[in-house]
Each structure stands twice: as structure tokens, then as C-alpha cells.
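Good morning C.,

I know you're traveling, so I'll keep this short. The sequence:
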Amino acid sequence: MVKDVLGNFKRYWFLMTQLISRDFKVKYKRSVLGVVWSLLYPILMLAVMAVVFSQMFKFKVEGVNYLVYLMTGIIMFNYFSEASNNAMTSVVSNFSLINKVYIPKYIFPVAKCLFVGINFALTLIPWIGIIALSYFGLGDYVCHFNRYFLILPYVFLCMLLFTIGIGMLLSCISVFLRDIFYIYGIIIMIWNYLTPVFYSIEIIPESLQPLFKLNPLYQFLTAAREIVLYGRSPSISSLLIIGGLGVGMLLIGGLVFRKNQDKFIYYI
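The C-alpha cells, ready to paste straight into the viewer:
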């Protein structure tokens, strides 16, 4: 199975790049600033949320730079939300292409997650800028660049694998149940509030904290924040957990997708 998947990736890589290129053109069509929005959006979102949560509601996290804490949560959760939503609609929206020629159908959700991943990589530029500005008084605490930043690509890769797995699962469900488009909107909103994007898990009653830690996105955000905010490596167990979450969800999503993909033609 793995050999077949890797072979198809090599064979259909050109199609993958064309799908990603098409998504870029569609997203920024008739946009004056174009790709610059990928840099501006997280900064504007940070500014709004910083005013709302740090000034109006007085949210803060003791001992760390709250602006960097907040932006880390924003860009990582936004990637997951946008990529999983786009992947969910990818098979249904490409039904005309699927009906005409044979294409490995998992290419569509994977291409969506990679496309949003490129945007995510662009948002890392202003994120690094915010970290650098902490040296010049932005926020209450300084965030130091350190050697543990080399672990961040591993954290982001694990989150990418997890998102692709979720995306394949959702894209498969959406073929048979179109209501998932509306249901998932509610799920992702609830998921956002259950993930410590703008608050610390310490404000949750201690008896409930173990339940919040079962949230996979909590694990990814915490691993990244350990590196950026505290200047230390996540524990070995934490790195193993996020690796298991990424690979495990990819396998689950891939197996469910593979088992049902031959039925898509009858429902699309």
C-alpha cells in the first residue's frame, strides 16, 4: 500500500502542483495585495485579539510574552481549521475531473492541505518578526531564539500529517453526507474554544485539565510554545505523542478513504 501511494505521488506530482497553483490563483484573483495578505492577516488578527483578550478581558499567561503566545495559537489553529475545511470539500468540488479520468482521489485533500501549508509557511514570517520584536520591548517578556527551534519543523510536520488524516476522513464523509459541511462548522468553532489558543489551560479547573489535554491540537500548540516561549525542548513523551497523533490519524484517514473511494462515483 505504502509503495503504491509513493509511486502515485511521483507519477501525479505534476497534477498536484497544478492543483496547488490553481488554488493560489483563485484565492488571490483580483486581489490588489495578493499573497501579501498571507503576511498581513495574522498580524491584523493578532492586533484585534490582543486588544480584545489582553486589554478588555485582561487575559495573560504568567511568565511568558502573551503576544507571542497568542500568535502561536492563532497561526497553528488557523492552519488546521482552513486546511481541514478545504480538504473536506476537495473531492466533491472536483467531481467533474474525477468522472472523466482516473486520478488517485486522495490527491485532492492532500493538495488542499499542502496549499494551505504554503500559506502557513508565509505566516511564519510575521510570527518570527513578532518574536524578534520582543527583544525591543514588544510584550512583557523576551522570547529568545534558541537551538530548540530546530525541533519546530518536526512539530509542524506532525500537525500536517494529522491535518491530512482529518482532511481525508472529512472528504470521504462529505461524499456520502453533505450535511457535514454545516456540522463541521459547528465542530470547528467548539474545537477552537476547547483549544488554549488565547487562554492558558491553567485557568481551567484542575479536575478538567486532563480532559482538555486529550485535545490533539493542545499537544501541538504546547510543543511549539515550549520551544518558543520557554526556550526548552518538549519532553520525549510529548514528541512521541505528537508523532503518534500525526502518523496515527494519517493512517486512519487513509484507510477509511481507501476503503470507500471506489464508491464515490455513485454519490458525487
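Safe travels,
E.
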